[in-house]
Amino acid sequence: MNNENKGKSGKIQLIIILVFTAILIGVAGYIIGMRRGEEKGQNADTPKTTEAAKNTGDDETEEITEEKSTEEKTEAASEEKTEEADEKSSSEESGSEGGIFVTVNTNAPWQNEKGYGFQCDVKIQNDSNKEYKDWVVKIKGFKGAEIENIWNAEYKINGDVLELTPVEYNNTIGSKTTVGDIGMIVDFKTEEECKNVPKGGELYVDGKLVAAADAAEKAREERKKERAEKSTPRPVEEGTPYDNHGKLSVKGTDIVDKNGDKYQLRGISTHGIAWFPQYVNKDAFETLRDDWGANLIRIAMYTDEGGGYCTDGNQSDLKKLVSDGVEAATELGMYVIVDWHILHDLTPLKYKDEAVDFFDEMSSKYADYDNVIYEICNEPNGGTTWDDIKEYADIVIPVIRKNDKDAIIIVGTPTWSQDVDTAIENPLSDYDNIMYAVHFYAATHKDNIRDKAKKAIDAGLPVFISEFSICDASGNGGIDYDSADEWMEFINDNNLSYASWSLSNKNETSALISPDSDKTSGWEDGDLSEAGEWLKDTILSN
Ligand code: IDC
After folding, report:
1. What is the pLDDT, as a whole number, of residue 98?
2. How many Å from the N-terminal Cα to the C-terminal Cα in the chain?
3. Which end is more exposed in the chain, N or C (fewer Cβ atoms within 10 Å of the end residue's Cβ)?
4. How many A from CA of 473 to the centre of ligand 1?
């Protein structure tokens, strides 16, 4: 055959193939159209790249399903969305319910011998009723990356895409659970490349896309919109909270202000000040007051860990931080809790002598400050009973009262400040202005803890939610928005005051600042974590 004939017969073959393909596509499109009752069906020959799969509009459904009907599935095409996958990641599904999302959190990069390194954490949150097995996560932007170290997943890099696969324990993602502990240290040559890693990843199961890379981001935007639609903005007060409300006291189960009107403290707790001292600053508190509507700051000083006051911490540095925080809050007319943050020490009796000295010093220093509140034991746990706590409180409260006759004092309760009901039979009735701590993490604690809190309130105990978050009790994991809403309703119905954990950019769900923002005040919306965004909206509205 001469070249010309070769060319001709080549063309004829091509035409036959095209016609045949077109017929196949037409038939498939017709069948799908009938099945779905829709009238779309073009673009059958558009190769579906993973990039295109990020778009979650309805129009894509046809492309994907039709493409499946051609015999020419490339590797990329075989990973395309199926009809089912598309339905899962449609805007409807990526709302607050029923979805599965992959979020990617990156720390601010640091310089190292490879160029720049950062920690990258990957979370797969399954809010759906389904269970997913043998998953693959794909995250773009990894060309030229080197993975120094990875935990809780296997990886490979294909061109631009980082591919993560499970290790044994997280191979199955149960319904309503979150795999929240996958992380790695990544190096790039330039800082720019580090910052280009997107905030979301795609999730594949059996070669099908079940979550698009922007599903989490879209769901977050959607929720923000819903919150804005549902809520009424709180009127802006002229003057500072303290100017308007002055000295607070406890009346019945409520906090009341200088006029005797019921008052609610709404605020933010620092993380451990030894770990995150940079957030104890006046500009930060001012941002929280003016942009978030907060009237309360809680200064959390761990006693037994991470530079703990009673262990390896530098006591004078820690006291300086507490005092900087109290002064800043005072100048801004905000209320401030000085929190003796017991946790690993289990019982407050362990360091009661140190507590006595500390609260003696604090309460004499702040005797004339009407905006200071003392929280004398964050979270007793490990079998510590109410009687143990009462024994401690009966030692520490008189020390404070000697200096400060009427400051509000919050007392922690057994089981990480959950079993407030155990104080009902034997309350601290010898003193005024005492409140009992209830702490919750909305994804873990629900009606069971609310019931205890209600029981205590009904029995006349004033309850203060001096720490909470909307994720699980580890301070990490997925956010449970429904549970968070139920808690806020309970809080507002009972005029409870609250402080949310935590003012930090730690790479954990409860941190209110996004891990890639190192701003220590003046945060814009893009600097906030999802929990931060929720809290800001919540404090700002009723
Ligand atoms: C957590 C922090 C975490 C830190 C840990 C140390 O979020 O970064 O490594 O403490 O033990 C509490 C505690 C609070 C915990 C928090 C989340 O009061 O100190 O902070 N939590 O675990 N009670 C319930 C949850």
Report:
1. 46
2. 83
3. N
4. 8
